[in-house]
What we know:
Elements: E1 5-10, H1 11-16, H2 18-24, E2 30-36, E3 39-45, H3 47-60, H4 63-77, H5 84-90, E4 93-97, E5 103-107
Amino acid sequence: MDMGLKTIVPVSEARRNLFRIMDKIQQPDTRFVLTVDGRPRAVVLSIDEWESMLSTLDIATDPAMVKAIERGEKDIKEGKYYSLDEVLSAEGLEVVRDKAAKYKVKKIKKAQRKDKKR
């Protein structure tokens, strides 16, 4: 498991650089381990990282979610899935790239549509 960028800092240094640390933890996967007398005592991370960790923990401890994920992984290995283009086409939609190099979904004409029954 990748713990991301972890910087170990004495709590006295963290106190002096609190605002700098708060700026740095806004970068994804960045956290600080605060030490007292060389021993780890606390972790500082962004609220987004904290909420992400809680969500992951919720999913990992929900037996129904774990089963659904395992079933999905099995389906992927067995080729039992549809591409985004297939799903959108079945709904009469397609992904197009506009002049600003952005992607959007638009309705396609009936003649272009690949009608597939699922």
